[in-house]
Design a protein that fits this description.
The structure is a single chain. The chain is mostly beta strands. Helix content is 4%, strand content 41%. The protein contains one helix and 13 strands. The chain has a six-stranded antiparallel beta sheet with strand order 1-2-10-7-12-5, with no helix packed on it. The protein has a five-stranded antiparallel beta sheet with strand order 9-8-11-6-13, with no helix packed on it. A two-stranded antiparallel ribbon has the order 3-4. A hairpin with a 6-residue loop joins strand 1 and strand 2. The chain is globular and about 50 Å long. The two termini are 32 Å apart. The mean pLDDT is 96.
Length: 183
């Protein structure tokens, strides 16, 4: 696997090695020992999640607060999304900054998202199946979120605002200035 540090501290872009031939392809989507050797991180994933969304859906920007904060390894198994993370760690040199990258079934790119970052995505294909590996269990009382369209973040989402499809919950998230953050 090829691991590339991003402009957000501790956020990693992972391109797995893909073996393809006339039958299709094979890839190892995660190997704990190889990940540890490549990153120095010892992550133990305890929960896998999957979502199906259609074009125009924006999910996010979500996170879990301590003591239930989650690191995630995310990827797309069908379709294409524009994936966004925002650094919410006040002590980080990249606090308040966002990074976006296209994740797709075609490019097989993954993101390792450390604890303390909000995460979301916009679906660019007709539909997308998105998978998340999490290192901590979900706790509804620890939910945190930032509005996807926060003007201080000024994220250039690649879909028109009038085409965005949001859940009722995602329509009502606070701005970054009003959201609970990490130290």
């Amino acid at each position: 696997m090829k691991i590339t540090p991003s402009e957000i501290q501790d956020l990693l872009i992972i391109d797995p090695k893909v073996y393809g031939d006339q039958r299709g392809y094979f890839m190892e989507s995660f190997n704990a020992e190889r990940f540890r050797q490549a990153t120095g991180l010892d992550v133990s994933f305890v929960q896998d999640n999957e979502s199906l969304s259609r074009r125009g859906v924006v999910r996010g920007l979500h996170y879990q607060l301590p003591p239930y904060a989650q690191a995630k390894l995310v990827r797309v198994v069908k379709g294409c999304v524009w994936d966004v993370v925002v650094d919410l760690r006040r002590s980080s040199p990249t606090f308040g900054r966002y990074m976006a990258v296209e994740l797709s079934a075609e490019n097989k790119r993954q993101l390792f998202i450390p604890k303390g970052l909000a995460h979301g995505f916009a679906v660019l294909s007709e539909e997308a199946i998105f998978q998340y590996k999490c290192d901590a269990y979900y706790h509804p009382e620890a939910e945190g979120a930032v509005a996807w369209n926060d003007p201080t973040l000024n994220i250039p989402w690649p879909i028109l605002t009038e085409e965005v499809i949001l859940s009722e919950k995602d329509k009502n998230h606070p701005l970054l200035a009003d959201a609970p953050l990490f130290e």
